[in-house]
Each structure stands twice: as structure tokens, then as C-alpha cells.
Write a structure and sequence with these properties.
- This is Hydrogenase expression/formation protein HypE.
- The protein has two domains: 110 residues, 2-Layer Sandwich (60s Ribosomal Protein L30, Chain: A), CATH 3.30.1330.10; 166 residues, PurM-like C-terminal domain (Phosphoribosyl-aminoimidazole Synthetase, Chain A, domain 2), CATH 3.90.650.
- With 353 residues, the chain is an alpha+beta fold.
- Strand 13 and strand 14 form a beta hairpin.
Length: 353
């Protein structure tokens, strides 16, 4: 007999514990395996309240100034893809992590890990792309490092960047601030970066070229904050896509998220590719999009500011934050049904950033 009183929290089955004695690709995918590795291995080893918040960038105070501090590593294959390269990602990824705390990014460090035998012309192309992206983002690379590993023990070029930025007074953006009643906004179409990488790596064509959305988002964030500092949460849905980002926010804030699936902007080429490959666009990585949780009273003004900015022209309201089913994300389908958007366990598309 069907229990008609059951809610979304009763619809999903518990996932058995995952026991991996060795590192697997999913540990770097931004999903449940990544979270387990961080919470059960790294956090106990490092300790500290700031690290335990698990935000895209840490908020620290130094000399009376509030700073955002972040680091990230880039191991994408191939090194060059439609719309960008590992050099662009190394800047935009770190700049965007800083921007998600409302910071104005200022300085980057950059470390190159090179495989013996890699052509210097390739390294030069990556470095030129990285420098150009830094200038576009308005940040300066001020320190760095280079290491070389034996042939066969790398993949040409890996890059690590760390960045710092200044958080304006009165800005407090973090996942814990999501509140029931908040409106969920995405800054543009999703899924382009992951499909662009996959199409080149696997030699697939989908009738038209899919270009990565990699771009710096700090300018868009500052345009949003110019309207109101009362933006509760920002997150760039990179590894694990929109689904992973929303789950992290819902779990951290102990709230629920309800999406209007038909309102989530998905380019036709991405939708076609995902249908062909059996993928869900909400789990595909992005590198130039953000998701925002905004109080309802500020939604129209924030949307207007976003759509006036080049990186937010196609911004759309895609859902809302609710008190029901805390820690869960559900989607209303075009047929009027409701489905659970499960958190990703590993990574659908490995090596996308």
C-alpha cells in the first residue's frame, strides 16, 4: 500500500558505505567520494575551524583586513580545447573561487609541474594563455615555482595556482547563510565546459562545436554586490556540476532546494550530447557560471544587474530554498512530477579541470 504522506526525504535509498583502500578517480571528482576523503582523512589531519567550513575560499583576517584565500590544481586533458586551455582554467578557477566569497581578487601564485620531454613550445602556449587570462581578470601573478618529473610520470603540464583577494566591508557570503525563501539564480547555460572537453578528448561531434564557458566571474559578482550586499550564497558549479554545488549548499545550510527543471538553461548542443551519452547536464562541469541564493526582495534588482553584465546576460531563476527536506535537492519536471537530484558519487567526466 502506498504511503501518500511520504515526502522527498523518504524517496531515496541509503547508499552503502564506500570502502576504497586506494585512491580512485572519483576521489577527485567533487562528489561524495571527494567529500569523504576531505572529511575523514584531510580534516582530522589538519584541524582548524576555518578549513572545516569547506568553502571555495577561506576567509581570514590579517592586519584588520578580511581576505579570501584559495588554491587549486589543474590536470585537464587535453591541454587546449575549444574556448580555452589549462592556462585559462588555472586563472579563472582560482579567481572564481575567491569571487564566490565576494572578494575582489588581487594576486596569484603559479606553479608548473612539467613532464620531462614536453615541448617547450607547448609550455610557452600555456604560459601565454595564463598571462593573458590574468590580465583579463585584473589579477597579477606575483610568485611561482617550476618542477620537472620523469618522463612517463606526468601528463605534459600540470598547474597549481593560489590567490588572495580583499572582501569588502559588509559582505558575508557563505553556504551557511542560505535561508528558506531565498531565490536560486544561475548566471547562464550549464554544461558547456564538460562537453567541450569530452568532445575533443574522445573525438566526438554533435552537429556543432561546443565551446567551454571558462571565464572570470569577479566582475559579475561585484556588479551584483553593487545592487545589494545581501547576497547569501555564491558558488561556481565546477566539478560535479550544478547538482554538486546545490547539494553542498543544502547540506551545509540544513535547508532544501526545489528546482524548476524546465527553467535550468541547457544549450541545445549540450542537451543533445548528454542525451547521446546518457549524461545529466546538471552533473556536467562548468568553468564560467555561478549559482546564487538571493533574498526574494532583492531578486529583480540582482537579475537586472547580472543581465547587464557580459557574464550574466542569460541569468535565470531556477528554483528556491525551502525549509522542507533539509539537505536535499529536488526538481519539478516538465510533466509535473518531482524527482530527487542525487549528489554525485564520483565524476562523470574525469580530468575536466
Amino acid at each position: 500500500m502506498t504511503d501518500t504522506t511520504a515526502g522527498p526525504a523518504d524517496w531515496s535509498c541509503p547508499v552503502p558505505l564506500r570502502d576504497h583502500p586506494v585512491v580512485v578517480m572519483g576521489h577527485g571528482g567533487g562528489g561524495a567520494l571527494s567529500a569523504e576523503l576531505t572529511r575523514h582523512l584531510f580534516l582530522p589531519a589538519y584541524g582548524g575551524e576555518t578549513l572545516g567550513e569547506l568553502t571555495d575560499s577561506a576567509t581570514v583576517t590579517l592586519g584588520g583586513a578580511r581576505l579570501a584565500f584559495s588554491t587549486d590544481s589543474y590536470v585537464v586533458r587535453p591541454l587546449f580545447f575549444p574556448g580555452g586551455s589549462i592556462g585559462d582554467l588555472a586563472v579563472n578557477g582560482t579567481v572564481n573561487d575567491l569571487a564566490m566569497s565576494g572578494a575582489v581578487p588581487a594576486y596569484l601564485s603559479c606553479a608548473f609541474l612539467l613532464e620531462e620531454g614536453t615541448e617547450l613550445s607547448t609550455v610557452g602556449r600555456v604560459a601565454q594563455a595564463l598571462g593573458a587570462a590574468a590580465r583579463t581578470a585584473g589579477v597579477t601573478v606575483v610568485t611561482g615555482d617550476t618542477k620537472v618529473v620523469d618522463s612517463g610520470h606526468g601528463d605534459g603540464v600540470y598547474v597549481n595556482t593560489a590567490g588572495i583577494g580583499l572582501i569588502p566591508e559588509g559582505v558575508d557570503i557563505r553556504p551557511q547563510r542560505a535561508r528558506p525563501g531565498d531565490v536560486v539564480i544561475v548566471s547562464g547555460p550549464i554544461g558547456q565546459h564538460g562537453i567541450a572537453i569530452l568532445s575533443v578528448r574522445e573525438g566526438l561531434t554533435f552537429g556543432t562545436e561546443v565551446t567551454s564557458d571558462t571565464a572570470p566571474l569577479a566582475g559579475l559578482v561585484q556588479a551584483m554586490l553593487a545592487v545589494t550586499p545581501e547576497i547569501h550564497v555564491l558558488r561556481d558549479p565546477t566539478r560535479g556540476g550544478l547538482a554538486a554545488a546545490l547539494h553542498e549548499i543544502a547540506e551545509t545550510s540544513k535547508t532544501g532546494v526545489v528546482l524548476d527543471e524546465g527553467a535550468v538553461p541547457v544549450p541545445d548542443a549540450v542537451a543533445t550530447a548528454c542525451a547521446f551519452l546518457g549524461l545529466d547536464p546538471m552533473y556536467v562541469a562548468n568553468e564560467g557560471r555561478l549559482v546564487a541564493f538571493v533574498p526574494r526582495t532583492h531578486t529583480d534588482a540582482v537579475l537586472e544587474a547580472m543581465r547587464a553584465h557580459p557574464q550574466g546576460r542569460e541569468a535565470a531563476v531556477i528554483g528556491r530554498c525551502v525549509a522542507e527536506h533539509p539537505g536535499m535537492v529536488v526538481a519539478r519536471t516538465g510533466l509535473g512530477a518531482t524527482r530527487i537530484v542525487d549528489p554525485p558519487i564520483g565524476e562523470q567526466l574525469p580530468r575536466i579541470c
